Amino acid sequence: MIPAAFDYAAPKTVADATRLLRRHPDAKIMAGGQSLLSLMKLRVAAPPLVVDLGRIKGLAYIRKRGNTLAIGAMTTHAEIAASATVREEARALAEAAEAIGDLQVRNMGTIGGSLAHADPAADYPAVFLALEGSVVVQGARKSRTIPADAFFTGLFSTTLSGGEIITEVRIPLRPAITGSAYLKMKHPASGFAIVGAAAVLRAGAKKGDAAQVRVAFTGAAAHAFRAKAVEAALAGKALDDATVRAAMEHAVRGFEMLEDLAADAAYRVQLVRVYGRRAVLAAAG
Amino acid sequence: MAVTPLFGSRIKRREDPRLITGEAKFLDDIQLPGMLCAVVLRSPHAHARIKSIDARKAAKAPGVVGVFTGKDFAGLNPLPCAWQAAGAKNNVNTPRVLEIDRVTFTGAGVAVVVAEDRYAAEDALALIDVDYEVLPVVVDAEAATRPGAPQLHENAPNNICMDWSCGNPESTEKALRDADVVVRQRLVNQRLIPTPIETRGVVAQYLPATGEYTVWMTSQAPHVMRLLMTAFVFGIAETKMRVISPQIGGGFGSKIYLYPEYCLVAALAKTLGRPVKWMEDRTENYVATTHGRDHITDIEVGAKRDGTVTALKVKTCANLGGILSTIAPGIPTTLYGRMLSGSYQIPNIHCQVLGVYTNTGMVDAYRGAGRPEATYVVERAMDLVARRLKMDPVEVRRKNFIPSDAFPYDPVGILAGLKYDSGDYEKTLNRALEIVNYKGFRREQEAARRQGRYLGIGFSSYVEICGVAPSAWIGLPGQGWGAGLWESANVRVHLTGKVVVTTGSQSHGQGHETTLAQLVADDLGVALDDVIVQHSDTLGTPFGYGTYGSRSAAVGGVAVHMSAAKIKEKAKRLAAHLLEAAEADIVYEDGRAYVRGAPDRAKTIQELALAASVGYNLPQGMEPFFDETSYYDPPNCTFPFGTHACIVEVDPDTGGVKILRYVAVDDVGRVINPLIVDGQVHGGIVQGVAQALWEGAEYDSNGQLLTSTMLDYAVPKAGFFPTFEVDRTETPTPVNPLGVKGAGETGTIASTPAVVNAVIDALAPFGITHLDMPLTPKRVWHAVRGRKEAAR
């Protein structure tokens, strides 16, 4: 429970941070530390240098910017859970933030840190996918935007490259979000999602168009995923129990379910279907 | 002046201000000048021979003062086993301070690094090179007894530590043959990890000039630790060691025992000539501190068609782990088999217990200790019989209850001479039924089922054994404990009238500093604030056996009460002298001794204490000072009882179980402090429910503990529970003058089967009659799905 020795740097700007990361390719970024420090204490991770983003000013905010909800990467789970703006514009995101860990974790952990860590059972990834969000990423030389669909690649892995820092999370607010929900079965010990399901409904692009449905899951597979077959089956349909239930039969298509003490594959398939249905019905209100 | 008695008052704990403000000093807060830090290297293998250990690199690492292996302490004896199963041969194997040639569980200590600080010590740990010859592993207790299983210890063929039984095998077999129905069921009572908030730790200091050790340790029984360490492990005079338990952050039984690290660190302090601290981390606590439960049990229950239970036959494989903890064999025998009659008149009982070695962590008493396992057997049996006979489980319980006029009750001899002291079992059941509105609930359950909702109710009408124990019964010639289990107390009234109580019991969350002060303040008629209670230091407290088995009120409290009574007698004699009255005419009341019929001719206890202390004017032959010590050996144990009821809803789509209501009606005899008893009941319920629904230590087939962190092992959280509905009846025990029975474990003992019975009741429409714990959503869903598919 004592980490191996490491150096610690707390840069004041994103530019300083990216410079440090370029010089020290083995460094780990700390953005709240709620996962990293535990791994270091168990000596699963032993980075020679920890670059703490906690002293960089101006990375914690929640702003409506035109048709986008912009959230600074260092915004804590507690701030997101308590934000009236998030609740108003993208309720599922507030529900996910509220469902993370415990109060201490929510006060320290950040949305950027959680997304970058890409824990297969973290809560945000499902909502991030279902909301079709994106992250703004700053590298040593250039910045880029990565859409949610192109972000998660596997267990604890993303398309972020080593020296890149997430600076902002963006959620598009058009077409208008008409309902969203995040539901999870909590692991009784860790509080992580055994399965978490996010559903987002948006008005059609033009008035009178059928609604879009987006459904994504976390905890079930090596990384969070969107159930596009479910979305297609539900597009434009009246979202009654029978229709959603039938659509959820396609929910895990193409994804291999995780197996652990809490859930085997067959049970995870069931949870995906049940929580997926409940999330869609909750989003449809 | 009438004084409101403190006995029975709901007063807040005097311990809490220092705990809430962080002033309390726990073991890890201790800092001594020059103190070193020890870290133990633990075996990564569950079963292996240690071929060699190369510590040269580690010894040279920065900050390291020394690296030691078992060979360095070969002169110290293995730790003692202080409670062996009575009347059976015990094939005893106990740990050494560090194992020398063989390890039998993952986490056994094989080497220790001592360094200037913990960082240096932990870094050096990785530099120790141990050459292991890995041996085959067995983790399942039943599998361990089969031919061909890996053998852990030469003196324990088929890995059997002991083969113990109680009851009457012939009459039980006959009754089963004659029964109208026989229900057979396998019940797995899974392994649990006690998880006190504070892990274990020890600080030791050795003074060469006097040859004296001072050892601070996280112990529920400091006097016993000193005795075992000095007399059994070190072979030195008991007086050469002082043991102190500082503020202890919970134990739940796991801090009763002598552990290798306590002896190791004391030995290191002597070897190195500097104080040494060792503090366990959470994963060490999970692998190397004792676990609880872990029984595989087969039961056969015989009953008449009307629900009368005629026979109970029980065979249990009790997993004791890779090596024995201090009192491991006593738990699944005396505290389990002997309580298998439960609250019922069962005319024929037989129980056989095999205590088995496996390549898993040590198993010993965990809150309830044997009684939860017995209660689980009996209370599940009642529900299984009810289901088979299509009877109401409440009616089956009622039909078999020991009637309230049958006390003292001897449960067909299986208690080896003890008798249940007092009880009114039906009263607690009736009260629980009233609180839950049983008839109304059954109607609601029916209506819900028609809507596809699955509600269930479960009961547990338990009795348990507390206040351990009469020395003649528990001791070596009786139930195998190596010593008597009386308790001690000293009460002194100082010159200023302030009262100092010292007790051999040990408070690690129970609130003794409050409840024992309540007793003394009442007895002597002084203010609560004028009484302090000291404990947990072998220097300054009389020898005592410590705190476990809900014994501190029923045994320790009585010793306190007896000492206070002796002081009252002396105060009366002194008052008679000072008031020039006959001793027989002195009345002691509300802190004053006065002449009967002339209440103004009085001396207060403060005046009397002053007179006794200054000693100028004492009756002929009276010694100065009010200072009385008592040793109380109870004539019997005490037997708290009650009925717990739980209402759950099961979601058949996810297997999720939601507790809708939890009702506890306990009878713990007279209650000194209802607030503290409520707290004990709440905490106990939480731990017992957790066994039913969430907790379970899991080993893989290689003997690796899969649930080795709090990310994996599901300790319950407050949000998992509804508000508990707690009520009590009060049936005093005739065993002791206070009428108190004990309240530390009732919740854990009662709640587990209440919850399981409720879930199984909810699942009745699926034809499910039993599921093993923990009833996780995964397990419940698979069972429901299996039944649905079978029905197709």
How would you explain this protein's 3D organization?
The complex is a heterodimer of chains A (285) and B (792). By secondary structure, chain A is of the alpha+beta class. The longest helix of chain A is centred in the C-terminal third of the chain and has 20 residues. Chain A is globular, with a radius of gyration of 19 Å. With 792 residues, chain B is an alpha+beta fold. Among the domains of chain B are: 199 residues, Alpha-Beta Complex (Aldehyde Oxidoreductase, domain 3); 208 residues, 2-Layer Sandwich (Aldehyde Oxidoreductase, domain 4); 147 residues, Aldehyde Oxidoreductase, domain 4, CATH 3.30.365. Chain B has a 7-stranded mixed beta sheet with strand order 3-5-1-12-9-10-11, sandwiched between helices. In chain B, a hairpin with a 5-residue loop joins strand 17 and strand 18. In chain B, helix 9 packs across helix 10 and helix 17 crosses helix 18. The mean pLDDT of chain B is 97. The interface between A and B is medium-sized, with 23 and 31 residues.
Main features:
heterodimer, A: 285 residues, alpha+beta, Uridine Diphospho-n-acetylenolpyruvylglucosamine Reductase, domain 2, Uridine Diphospho-n-acetylenolpyruvylglucosamine Reductase, domain 3, Enolase-like, domain 1, 3 domains, 5-stranded antiparallel beta sheet, 4-stranded antiparallel beta sheet, 11 helices, B: 792 residues, Aldehyde Oxidoreductase, domain 3, Aldehyde Oxidoreductase, domain 4, 7-stranded mixed beta sheet, 5-stranded mixed beta sheet, 19 helices, 26 strands, 23% strand
